[in-house]
Amino acid sequence: MTGAGKSAVGNTLLGMDTFHSYPAEECVTLNCETSEAVLESGRKIKVADTPAFYADSNMLEVLNFFEFLAPGPHAILIIIRPCRISKRDVIILDEMQKIFRDDQLFYRFAILVFVRKNDIIGEYGCCVNIHEYIKDYTNKDILNLYEKCGQRAIAVANRQSWKGRNVEAIEIMKEIDKLDRVYFHEFFQKTVQVEELKKELKNELTKNMKKKKWFSFLNFHEIN
Which UniProt keywords apply (predicted)? Predict the structure, then answer.
């Protein structure tokens, strides 16, 4: 989601300020960026921060994350704000499935990450569990997205101390570890090569270059 804070979530995962991030309504990330880190546990990870889907060049840039995270990402984090998702966002997510050549493949490795955790409240201003919040206080589009992602969701607060952010990074990693351990790249290798995807996308963009569409993702890869 444009301006949702995915660069900040990427920094939280990495445990340091690597991606350029500040509060904004428009997307701060203009190019696909990648960074690596070694966690306290000894795990090596790589995170790719993608730009928004709002222009032809950016859509091609997003596709580059396959190359940045070769041989393939292990998780796709969809970063959104509480109660903020439009019909256009839903359409873009559905179109992303075409890249993966499988209606279920994209969502099989997707996790919803809600930012602004302190805004996730229920009746009488009380804090609620993220799953309860989604089921009882969000619109049907977010609920449908939640179901497509296998009810995988987590809430984080980017604007807090690093001590708190490190705790939330651990929680995100726990959600990633719950994913099917049949690695994402095995499915990707069975479908199509990156260059073929780019060629198809360029052809599609030529037909739709006047249409403005956007969405953005954060991609996670564990380095062996």
Answer: GTP-binding, Nucleotide-binding
| DSSP strand pairing (44-49 vs 33-38) | antiparallel
CATH topology of domain 6-223: Rossmann fold (3.40.50)
pTM of the model: 0.77
The answer to whether the beta carbons of residues 53 and 201 sit under 8 Å apart is: no
Q: Tell me, what amino acid is at 65?
A: F
With the CA atoms of 164, 220, 103 and 100 taken in that order, what torsion angle do they form, in degrees rounded to the nearest 10?
A: 160
Look at strands 153-155 and 218-223 and give their pairing.
Answer: unpaired
DSSP, residue by residue, 83-139: TB--HHHHHHHHHHHHHHTSTTHHHHTEEEEE--GGG-B-GGG-B--HHHHHHHHS-
